[in-house]
């Protein structure tokens, strides 16, 4: 899947800051976890485990793919990343760190591209407040709209 997102590259963090984040979440600190979290913060966009694995290889901080998958699972459980879309058996993640503005996504079922949409409107926070008043505990809001992008729609109409 190709992801089209101009949102939100985070400033480079020092190793000490990344270490502090892991410690605050109660995660054991390893060389691999430090490298993976630092890369997630640098990427600042949506990614798959494979995207992250390739980015780590390119930065000379090689971590095997199985470790990337296990670490993403631990990071998701700790609230450091969230799954923003799933296509088949592929999960797309985003960091939950400061600087990432909540936004919806459009997933094209024709070409598989994931488009970031503008930040969510006030109505979403109104709905969340309403749910909280009814006793619900909201952990996250993920909005993914599925359909055909303009290019795929034109292609379908031309058949």
From TrEMBL:
Pfam families reported for this sequence: FUR (PF01475)
Organism: Acetomicrobium mobile (strain ATCC BAA-54 / DSM 13181 / JCM 12221 / NGA)
Protein name, as recorded: Fe2+/Zn2+ uptake regulation protein
UniProt GO MF annotations: DNA-binding transcription factor activity; transcription cis-regulatory region binding; zinc ion binding
InterPro entries: FUR (IPR002481), Fur_C (IPR043135), WH-like_DNA-bd_sf (IPR036388), WH_DNA-bd_sf (IPR036390)
Similarity comment text for this entry: Belongs to the Fur family.
Annotated PANTHER family: FERRIC UPTAKE REGULATION PROTEIN (PTHR33202:SF7), ZINC UPTAKE REGULATION PROTEIN (PTHR33202)
Cofactor descriptive note: Binds 1 zinc ion per subunit.
GO biological process per UniProt: negative regulation of DNA-templated transcription; regulation of secondary metabolite biosynthetic process
